[in-house]
Amino acid sequence: MKKEMKIKKEMTVETVNEVLQDLVSSFKKGTVCIQEGERFVTLKPGGSIEFEMEAAEKKGKQKLDISLTWRETVPEEKEERTFRISCEEPKIETPDYAPGTEPETTEAHDAETGEGDGSEVNKENGDAEGEKQTYYVNQDNN
């Protein structure tokens, strides 16, 4: 449905300044509602805006026309970001075990040589089907 308003009035410079300030303020907030009496048009500027300005002086009369044109856009849903970038390392909690429930400990071996390096590997089995296995490596640098 097309809604259109045209306002043409003679005003003082002070009143024009107020109107332009209201326009700029509304534009910055993303919604411009122009109302006269019970009639109104609400615009939502966004995306790429075509700006056109014409200034002219002829026989003692000056004119300034400003035109802003854009396509109505459908607000996009805010994309959820699944990652984080920071200058700090995250604090990752290690699991706490009750006495007597610690996972099985075995000596770690080098995958290529098969030799032990003196470190310990904690093995924690997951569900009954054995789908999940978590390994914790504790290196002793003594």
Attribute tags:
single chain, 142 residues, mainly beta, three-stranded antiparallel sheet, two-stranded antiparallel sheet, 1 helix, 35% strand
Describe it for me?
The strands form 3 sheets. A 3-stranded antiparallel beta sheet has the order 5-6-7, with no helix packed on it. Strands 1-2 form a two-stranded antiparallel ribbon. Strands 3-4 form a two-stranded antiparallel sheet. About 10% of the residues have low confidence. Among the domains are: 57 residues, no CATH class; 35 residues, no CATH class. The protein starts with 12 loop residues before the first helix and ends with a strand. The protein is mostly beta strands. The chain contains 1 helix and 7 strands; from the N terminus they run αβββββββ. The chain is 12% helix and 35% strand.
Briefly say what this structure is.
It contains one helix and seven strands, in the order αβββββββ. By secondary structure, it is mainly β.
Question: Strand portion, in percent?
Answer: 35-45%
The spatial strand order of the largest sheet comes to: 5-6-7
What is the helix tally? 1
The assigned structural class equals: mainly beta
Average the pLDDT over all residues and give the rounded result.
75
